UniProtKB/TrEMBL annotation:
InterPro entries: 6-PGluconate_DH-like_C_sf, NAD(P)-bd_dom_sf, PDH_C, PDH_N, Preph/Arog_dehydrog, Prephen_DH
Source organism of the structure: Haemophilus paraphrohaemolyticus HK411
Record-linked PROSITE patterns: PDH_ADH (PS51176)
Any one of the GO BP annotations: tyrosine biosynthetic process
Keyword Lyase: no
Lineage per the UniProt record: Bacteria, Pseudomonadati, Pseudomonadota, Gammaproteobacteria, Pasteurellales
Keywords per UniProt: Oxidoreductase
Domain Prephenate/arogenate dehydrogenase: residue ranges: 1-238
Stored Pfam families: PDH_C, PDH_N
GO molecular function: NAD+ binding; prephenate dehydrogenase (NAD+) activity; prephenate dehydrogenase (NADP+) activity
Name recorded for this polypeptide: Prephenate dehydrogenase
């Protein structure tokens, strides 16, 4: 495997000359620009693919600049994951699937599960899986940091579930803020959905401002019904995670 870094473009023709697969892996805000910049060096025998967490626009751009096989991937795990075993890799087909079938098979051999989905559907789902989740985690962390509390004391007094929640919040802030800013702001739908979260928060707060316990329970049961059998499944799965989190307690 040979990489083409940002300072290597003067040698791009040499670096890419014998490539069978050109895999774009750059920050979201550089993806379209990078794909377009690759155009003069692409031949029809090459597979052009990307790993961006946004799929519709990059896939469209790749199809536009390249006449050969095109496919979009989104690994649903971070760079600190030790192996692909049981990990999910999203696949958005572009063109010439028969040419990159070997690549899909190789990913499966490495142990990953491939989830095929339309690029637009993928981006809609990521509004909730990534943008909304990351924003709410950021907001919770920001709020905690501005409160008159000591983090060490919260950890000392925390239950396993709260410790796990703190770990998920702290994990976000141990990473690159620019990456999360790009994920949260990558499309207008994200902001609209986040604004709806604000409305839901204000609506939910009224149950307690107005001492409406019955109203809260009614909505609680409505959400329980929406989750259906997944509620029990998630309860069992979380018990395993909670035990693991408790094992790390010092």
């Amino acid at each position: 495997m040979v990489s083409l870094d940002q300072n290597d473009w003067v040698q791009a023709d040499i670096i890419l000359a014998d490539a069978d697969l050109v895999l774009v892996c750059v920050p979201i805000n550089k993806t379209l620009e990078t794909i377009e910049r690759l155009q003069p060096f692409l031949t029809e025998k090459m597979i052009l693919a990307d790993l961006t967490s946004v799929k519709a626009q990059p896939l469209q751009k790749m199809l536009q600049v390249h006449q050969g096989a095109v496919v979009g991937f989104h690994p649903m795990f971070g760079p600190d994951t030790p192996s692909l075993a049981k990990q999910v890799v999203v696949c958005c087909h572009g063109r010439g699937a028969e040419q990159y079938e070997w690549l899909l098979e190789q990913i499966k051999i490495w142990g990953a599960k491939i989830e095929v989905i339309d690029a637009i559907e993928h981006d809609h789902a990521m509004t909730y899986i990534q943008a909304l989740r990351h924003f709410s985690t950021f907001m919770f962390g920001l709020h905690l940091s501005e409160q008159p509390i000591k983090l060490e004391q919260l950890l000392a007094l925390s239950s396993p579930i709260y410790r796990l929640e703190l770990a998920m919040i702290g994990r976000l802030f141990a990473q690159d803020g620019a990456l999360y800013a790009d994920i949260i702001s990558d499309k207008p739908e994200n902001l609209t959905t986040i604004q709806s979260l604000k409305a839901t928060f204000e609506q939910s707060l009224k149950f307690f401002e107005e001492k409406d316990k019955a109203g809260f329970i009614q909505v609680f049961e409505k959400v329980h019904h929406w989750f259906g059998d997944y509620s029990e499944q998630f309860l069992k799965e979380s018990q395993v995670l909670l035990q693991q989190a408790n094992d790390y307690r010092k």
